[in-house]
Amino acid sequence: MSRRHFNSLLFNSISSSPLFSRNPSQSFVSSLKSYPQNLNLCRQCLLSRFLCTSPPDNLDGLLDPQDLSTPETHSLSAQDFAFLRDSPKFDPDKCSNDAVLISNAIRNSSDSFGDETHKFLRRFRDNLNETLVVQVLSLVKSPELGVKFFIWAGRQIGYSHTASVYNALLELLECGSSDRVPEHFLREIKGDDREVLGKLLNVLIRKCCRNGLWNVALEELGRLKDFGYRPTQATYNALVQVFLRADRLDTAHLVHGEMLELGFKMDEYTLGCFGHALCKAGRWKEGLALIEKEEFVPNTVLYTKMISGLCEASLFEEAMELLNRMRCNSCIPNVVTYRILLCGCLKKKQLGRCKRILSMMITEGCYPSPGIFNSLVHAYCRSGDYSYAYKLLKIMVRCGCRPGYVVYNILIGGICGHEELPTVDMLDMAEKAYGEMLNAGVVLNKVNVSNFVRCLCGHGKFDKAYKVINEMMSKGFVPDTSTYSKVIGFLCNASKVEQALLLFEEMKQNGVVPDVYTYTILIDSFSKAGLIEQARNWFNEMVGNGCAPNVVTYTALIHAYLKARKVTDANQLFEMMLTQGCIPNAITYSALIDGHCKAGETEKACLIYARMRGNLEAPDVDMYFKIDDQSLKEPNVHTYGALVDGLCKANKVREAGDLLDAMLVEGCEPNHIVYDALIDGFCKSGKLDEAQKVFAKMSEHGYSPNVYTYSSLIDRLFKDKRLDLVLKVLSKMLENSCSPNVVIYTEMVDGLCKVGKTDEAYKLMLMMEEKGCNPNVVTYTAMIDGLGKAGKIDKCLDLFKAMSSKGCAPNFITYKVLINHCCAIGLLDEAHKLLDEMKQTYWPKHLAGYRKVIEGYNREFIASLGLLNEISECDSLPIVHIYRVLVDNFVKAGRLEVALELHEEISSSTPFTSVNKDMYTLLIENLSHANKADKALQMFAEMIRLGGYPELSTFFHLIKGLIKINRWDEALQLSDSICQMDIQWASA
Questions:
Q1: What pLDDT digit, counting tens, does each position of 703-758 carry?
Q2: What is the CA radius of gyration of the chain?
Q3: Integer Cα distance of 923 and 907 in angstroms
């Protein structure tokens, strides 16, 4: 490509662009004002046209009271927490003294880099080296002074510039401008040393190529030729690579042709990339011809790259043919070759071919990675071939790959994760896998525990189900709504799970009618678990069987309705209670107060309390006081406890404090629950002084603070960044023989992370394990988030792996936090891998299960992740945000194919929301810029079909994309359709 031809193409493409027309339309100009683009983006739009060579195609009831053994703990002292004190800062990025002296002298010189400066610099000539020059260029900050120092250094005997120095100079020259390197700097360098400028421009072109800026690289190529220089072989290789990454095969061919004319050849890496691109386009024979033309003997790496391209194009027969050709040429496939073949077939669900390839590679001593085994097991589970999926676990062991958390959860979740029960043989297989999993020290996640126990109960294996619950609970498992719905019968009326449910089922099967006590236990337990419909079914069943509910039965169900904000249902049940002659007691009224508080109706709760005291008439609560017997309605400590807790949670801590005084006046002794609720309320409201007063009053009345009391205080102190007082509270806590529990340790870990003390937080987490308190999923998640915010992503990933190996299963929040941090620093493939792992381990798909997942996390922490809004906006698991983050980052990285795959995946499984619309808009814009107008139009039509209304900017980018590829008729039609729309577009 000659310099003259390049300039001609550039001029024609700019002059024909609508941006440079003599009479641009007013609507087009206003669109540009509404949606300004930076200069680099404009340049991409201008140059992309002439480069386009073709159109783009709470565990209540779960514990045995006779077996309340506590975990082994170790003694603690205040000294153990001494490392929490402030520690000095350390700055690792220090330049040498020489670099600092030189940069200061250059910047502060009064002679504009004249004789005085030169005289000063001579002192450092013997010490001049690459590192020193790079450091000075990074410190000097001024491009003008940087160029002069660069020129001076280049003149010194015994020193010559290196690639690092050239890059440092380019960083300096570009730091003050978003445009190209100013030409007068280049001419100044040329005037001193023509050869140095040539090297600099070649480095600049290669830098643009590394950053994916193929259009800017072309401009710099033109400038290099204008200066009379010739690109080097390395520069040509970089240009070919960047065009291949941009899917511009024809342009890469043109550059390659120019290379050949100048006698240059592609290096092995570039040739491999070219072969891969040709194979991906289905032109694998051209790839072989190109290799032959380059007189390169194909090796394993090159063949593997070409096979990778064929797999990406789903040309598996051709890939196997190339594999055979590879063998015929005495080139032995390696583990990477087979892994690429295996992953390609797996991605396209070619499972039969996967078995053959797996057999071939193992025979030749090549073994899949743990991640590939996980994906294989997942794929065969999805296809229903559980026998082979289980066989893969055995193959993993033979290959020296120990099955871990993910693969066991995939297999057991696959067998037990469906609505219908698995067959006996399949369940036996799941039990074998579960046994092997326990022996390996691995755990099931929450959803798979629920599903596994449900299937065991469905097959009558109650003893096994109870054993699984106990084993998982010993490892930190907390049953959720789904678990309660299947095994709550084990946990009622007895401490043995199997006895409770088995007794209830046997009673009904044998024709024995359960009495009020049996029904009340079931109704109370299911109500507390939030399973109100099932509780109401048993209530209706007992009434239908002639078994009259008692006051406890009614109270339990009324309380549940109120907590679920179903006030009408609660009132109807209360009326039924009175009609049937069942008299409410103080516990009922306490439940009414607590329920209204939890339903957010604290004012009504206060009215009920006032009527109990006989203080006023309140029509809104008259229905609860139709029976005039004041002795039944005297407030007790439970009544006060419920109201104090409710008021505190509603941030009405002053009224809650007044209630404590009223209790003491009425002679009602507050208990631990009342004091703890009030201290917690004051702490959460930031009124630490008031909390300390209640703490003192609590001690005066003979109550020793417990772990929950200290927890509230420590949490507040961390929020106030009072680490000095935290240490005092910990010392007091230990003096009272009250060891911190996992909640307190977690609050401390989270608090330390929030003030940037991640090293101390990590030491604390290690210490809690040494003291016999294992971190839970909330602890690990807080630590991972803190490390991520501190930029220590490698430590985040190591901790994520460690938590599973230590028997703590990550949950949705853990994955979300880690994916966000990976995206933030550009580890997109790692983030994508985490998303796949999260999906494969069968996390809950519905909101009820999701709410259980987030229990235990601080509200502020959940809000910081944007999850509170997501919960309120959707009825399904809000994972759209994760996909949005990944799609956005893959688009920014120029990896549109992966972004489109992620978008298609989430769009097919979730309803259309504003987040989905944003993804459509983002992809349409970038597809248009990438000359993929057909795909952009397809997504545009799909968005409209789903009810998404496009913004004006969407039309703008579509029209612009069509114009770039000379599809003027369609662009005009789309423009005309905008004019025909009766829409008032928002003004700029």
A1: 888 888 888 888 888 888 787 788 888 888 888 778 888 888 888 888 888 888 88
A2: 35
A3: 13
